[in-house]
Amino acid sequence: MSNAADTSDDNGMRDTIAEGESTPKANTDSATEAEGSVKDGAGEKKCGKGEEHQCKDWWCLCKEHISAQSRLFLKGGRIVNDDHSFDADVYIEDGIIKQVGNNLVIPGGSRTIDARGKLIIPGGIDTHTHMQLPFMGTFAVDDFYSGTKAALAGGTTMIIDFVLDQKNVSLLEAYDKWRSWADGKVCCDYALHVGVTWWSDQVAKEMEVLCKEKGVNSFKVFLAYKDVFMLDDHEVYQTFMKCRELGAIGMVHAENGHLIAEKSQEMIDNGITGPEGHEMCRPEEVEAEATLRAITIAHQANCPLYVVHVMSKSAAKVVTAARRRGNVVFGEPIAASLGTDGTHYWNKCWRHGAGHVMGPPLRPDPSTPGYLMDLLANNDLQVTGTDNCTFNADQKALGKDDFRKIPNGVNGVEDRMSIIWEKGVACGKMDPCRFVAVTSTNAAKIFNIYPQKGRIAVGSDADIVVWDPKATRTISAKTHHQAVDFNIFEGMTCHGVPDYVITNGHVVLDEGQLRVTQGMGRYIPTPCNSEIAFSRIRERERTCQPCKVERDPYDGPVAKIDGNMLDVITKSSNPILSADAGSDKFNSHSRPATSSGGRNLHDSSFSLSGAQYDDRQVRKASTRSLNPPGGKSEGIW
């Protein structure tokens, strides 16, 4: 775990990164030092004006400003939590909210931020990111530094990334790799989900270690990406059973990988090689079928299920119906599915179409974003992520002749909060309280970090956004803070932007000026047995145990069969076909015949070889008919 105090660059100087031309950069090799500033013996920049000066530059690291950064007073705003909103002030000290209310008595040396006319909301939590993910032979261009910096610029103060390595790689080794990538780079707090891409006793043991010792409480399985990440249904069931045992949440990427493999080859065979083929081989029903299958498996394992990136109406309907049946399932639409659609795949510009390629794909039905937003507003869907996994034009061009080779992924971590406000609150579909719920609080509750995160309350972490609902901004790849050279929301004007962003008590966005410290973020352990996910699960476990029927032993006759056929039938996945598989007498493609040789004519005898049940019967070459042409009549009866 790292923080601002122990992170330095090659020159031993504090690596404070500054954005914006109008203010000096705190510390880079090429930056010009601010007038009158000096460096102390440890390499940290001091104001040079003496410890008692009254400097007005908030970025200054003199003693007065270090004190002011640890003491913040937000005055005159309206606090918005998921359950209610009210007018009050907030006092922050040492990264923790210390006071909430009116007429607060605060110590001297505090920095006051005027929040009049603004909303004071919990910092956003992006539940779904893939920073610097190794995928399809390349790496996502947004790493844990540029990705979390962009997140803060948009009002997100915590991300939950995915540990996702190849099959047969130790989960613990993969976890350590992701921690080593993230700890020295993150600008905001983060947690980790872990992907289960293969199954064995070793994986089960490592899941237990991750839960009990590493602060992981969620594991993701794939029903897609055949031969890469995909598990078979029985492996998914075993994974979810282990999750239930550990008090962890099962997560799923829901698409039918077998169908996608077949359909994508059909597209190539038909000469469809562009980005439109990506959506055409992964239609809505492929996502909906896998969503239902995952929900069914999770329900049989009595495991709470989190469906990542709900992209279509069909999949959303499946999640909604399951929740109304009482299944413990959560649905996560993402900024992309809420803010744009899949018509872009048919754009004449290949780069434009490829820039939108992700899995599952955006849907070409332009009414899909509004439909998903309606469900999100009404709690049929619960949280929002981004699936932020970005690749530049030259990386996307790996699939210029075959859409299957286009690296899947889009942006969203910086724009998520504004997109949801614009499409939800500004359009009248949800109120600010619901906005807070779907961007922060529900995620904190599901992943068991509430009320440390996701709430403005005494004792909570000072991850806070001062939100200006009246301000606007236009999204563009030319002005965003991400490393990627494309933005799927290009040109969209959003009402509602962050004015100030505070992470762990540090102001990192000040009236549009972004200054972050590389490595200042912390790893946040996520404890198991989340109340919102497991309260019903535990009750069902207690009250719905299967029980046998007490009855007298059977004392009648028992049929005799050859050898150990009973054991074969018991172990077979298809005991009906195994019952007499070696018999020449009744070799049928469907159910075996009766002892007298009869068949159920409603049974199918279809065979790929064209063989029929009675192929072995001796047939006469011809049969003489004594009837006249057209047949003869014998009367009605």
From TrEMBL:
Record family assignment:
Belongs to the metallo-dependent hydrolases superfamily. Hydantoinase/dihydropyrimidinase family.
Q: Name all Amidohydrolase-related domain ranges.
A: 120-508
NCBIfam families, from UniProt? Answer: D-hydantoinase
Q: Which GO terms describe its molecular function?
A: dihydropyrimidinase activity; metal ion binding
Chain segments annotated as coiled-coil in the UniProt record: none
Q: Where is this region: Disordered?
A: 1-49, 580-637
Q: Which organism is it from?
A: Mizuhopecten yessoensis
Enumerate composition-biased segments (Polar residues): 589-610
Keywords from UniProt, A to Z, are:
Hydrolase, Metal-binding
Q: Which residues carry this modification: N6-carboxylysine?
A: K220
What is one Gene Ontology biological process annotated in the Swiss-Prot or TrEMBL record?
pyrimidine nucleobase catabolic process
- One Pfam family assigned to this protein is Amidohydro_1
Give the protein's recorded name: dihydropyrimidinase
Q: According to its UniProt record, how is this protein modified after translation?
A: Carbamylation allows a single lysine to coordinate two divalent metal cations.
List, as start-end ranges, the regions of compositional bias called Basic and acidic residues. 36-49
InterPro entries xrefs: Amidohydro-rel, Hydantoinase/dihydroPyrase, Metal-dep_hydrolase_composite, Metal_Hydrolase, Metallo-dep_Hydrolases_sf
Q: Return the EC number.
A: 3.5.2.2
Supply one GO CC term from the record: cytosol
Cofactor(s) needed, names only, are:
Zn(2+)
